[in-house]
Amino acid sequence: MLNFKYIVFLGSALLLSVAVWFIFFAKELAPDFTAYAAGPERKTAFFNYFTPIIVDANKQLAADRRQIQKICDKGNSDAASLESYLTKYRIDDADLQQESACQLLLRRADVVPVSLALAQAANESAWGTSRFAKQGNNFFGQWCFTKGCGIVPQSRDKGKAHEVADFRSPADSVESYMMNLNRHDAYKPLRTIRQSLREKGFVISGLPLTHGLNKYSERGEEYGKELRDMITFNDLTRFDTASD
Questions:
Q1: pTM score, two decimals?
Q2: Using an 8 Å Cβ cutoff, are 170 and 50 in contact?
Q3: pLDDT digits 0-9 by tens, 85-117
Q4: What region holds the Mannosyl-glycoprotein endo-beta-N-acetylglucosamidase-like domain (predicted)?
Q5: How many other CB atoms sit within 10 Å of the CB of residue 92?
Q6: 33-242 — its CATH code?
């Protein structure tokens, strides 16, 4: 017969395991934005929820940038001294044959304007009401390519194998989106525009960066125009001072 104290111990251990699982692995969902009336009420709820998440993600990017700049300012700009950042921002040997590690990293390790992130999140997730946003915390239309990595689109073309990425939390979706803009070759134009704004001492704002997103959507230039219209109509540039 099992000792009573041992049974209590097993029960406590099981409860602790369940608690740990919920803390570290349970999915964290955004609010149900369909509970808000479409229009100003839903938009306000959407902006209020995502703005601090975007700001927090930018703080990490800004911290990376400061540390990279510190290393580079000391003249210790060899690849070895920046190895962890080169890995994080996916800079390889072929890249390093074209430019120095510092030049490449300082172009990639940088903030994404709040106005741009809000506009893309609203556009890609239908203001947080899409199936992928509600089921998979995917607010930016990001794909993954390993079977079982996400949600299979109902309208996926025959022969295609991509899925829509499933994130543990909305914050994870924001972080992945920002790293995508900072690492993927398709968004070099965006990073070049951002670098130019920095060099000229301008605020890094979403409006000019939309011109570097023609490859984000099959709609091409029309997609960038749609984002600019959203930013302007909703006066999203008012959030951009929180980006830098």
A1: 0.85
A2: yes
A3: 999 999 999 999 999 999 999 999 999 999 999
A4: 86-224
A5: 10
A6: 1.10.530.10
